[in-house]
Amino acid sequence: MSAPTSSKPRVSARLAAIAESATLAVDAKAKALKAAGRPVIGFGAGEPDFPTPDYIVEAAVAAAKDPVNHRYTPAKGLPALREAIAAKTLRDSGYEVSPDSVLVTNGGKQAVYQAFAAIIDPGDEVLLPAPYWTTYPEAIALAGGTPVEVFAGADQEYLVTVEQLEAARTERTKALLFCSPSNPTGAVYSPEQTEAIGRWAVEHGVWVITDEIYEHLVYDDAVFTPIQRAVPELVDTSIVLNGVAKTYAMTGWRVGWMIGPNDVIKAATNLQSHLTSNVANVSQRAAIAALTGDLSAVEQMRTAFDRRRRTMVEMLRAIDGVVLPTPKGAFYAYPSVEGVLGRTIRGRTPTTSAELASLILEEVEVAVVPGEAFGPSGFLRLSYALGDDDLAEGVGRIQELLA
């Protein structure tokens, strides 16, 4: 006797609509090829190649031996960590927040999703400057919202203007996602640009969700400008997202946080209490050590990233058809390759950046992420969070292929 069949889909429409993280997919493919013995160099993952600083690891080892950390703690996070986040915000961003306004999350991605889930209803629109990090539109859609892309190309150094935001605003606009320094472009908004966008948001009652996870990674004349410090009136209609992953080379420890108005933080805490409960206590203790220590280890990493950035920019700009605004933050270069598309390379003629990325991987075994993951085609994202020798070798292979 055959089993009864159902006309209903097996997977929910909500989850079926989610695309895989393109950056993690490229990184996984590169690692799989490397494990199979191929000399692949991966520029896909946004992950520092440095070990977590010793003093942070030692704090985690001590915490693992203490039975108090073997139990549940408040879903909102350890009080000592929320106090450390508040103190760190005053130190680094220049304004005061209450520890009660902080929710500790399982990495930055959980903070991103919960921020949208806390304020977005079905039908609400979220202005999303593009190129954008691949997770943002998926998180907005999961929360029931509609992402509205506002694109700024290489000619604008990937920085959207107030005029563009206003042209995209409708009566359904609820929020703006603001990310500076930017993943994927490395663009950094100036203090004046940041203030102008913040004042526009206040004027029109638009919430700002600001992702500040790359705050310590700025170069040249760029400065990180917290939008809440630039426009204090945003305090009741903004949510700050951050974490220890990028600053302290702690991507695997999974500690992020969100700071916002008390009603929003309470709603997000209620959600998290059912979703994941508390972040692992050992990781929280490690994060306390990170945030209460000095920033000397961070400065050493920033110096290395800056050196690699200069090398990558110089090498990519030497390729005919590549246009690259100087990335001034994070650890990514985002070259426009529109001048390369349509050119025949080893018998193949890529017409999209996705096709070009596939060609680069197959022909010279270098993994890059195509622009389609972050918005329009015609771009590549390369992370320079990898060793100097691998970086020079990998970009050198691309130079040779596209010469």
UniProtKB/TrEMBL annotation:
<comment type="similarity">
    <text>Belongs to the class-I pyridoxal-phosphate-dependent aminotransferase family.</text>
</comment>
<dbReference type="InterPro" id="IPR015421">
    <property type="entry name" value="PyrdxlP-dep_Trfase_major"/>
</dbReference>
<dbReference type="InterPro" id="IPR015424">
    <property type="entry name" value="PyrdxlP-dep_Trfase"/>
</dbReference>
<keyword id="KW-0663">Pyridoxal phosphate</keyword>
<keyword id="KW-0808">Transferase</keyword>
<protein>
    <recommendedName>
        <fullName>Aminotransferase</fullName>
        <ecNumber>2.6.1.-</ecNumber>
    </recommendedName>
</protein>
<dbReference type="InterPro" id="IPR004838">
    <property type="entry name" value="NHTrfase_class1_PyrdxlP-BS"/>
</dbReference>
<feature type="domain" description="Aminotransferase class I/classII large">
    <location>
        <begin position="39"/>
        <end position="397"/>
    </location>
</feature>
<dbReference type="InterPro" id="IPR004839">
    <property type="entry name" value="Aminotransferase_I/II_large"/>
</dbReference>
<dbReference type="InterPro" id="IPR050596">
    <property type="entry name" value="AspAT/PAT-like"/>
</dbReference>
<dbReference type="InterPro" id="IPR015422">
    <property type="entry name" value="PyrdxlP-dep_Trfase_small"/>
</dbReference>
<dbReference type="GO" id="GO:0008483">
    <property type="term" value="F:transaminase activity"/>
</dbReference>
<dbReference type="Pfam" id="PF00155">
    <property type="entry name" value="Aminotran_1_2"/>
</dbReference>
<keyword id="KW-0032">Aminotransferase</keyword>
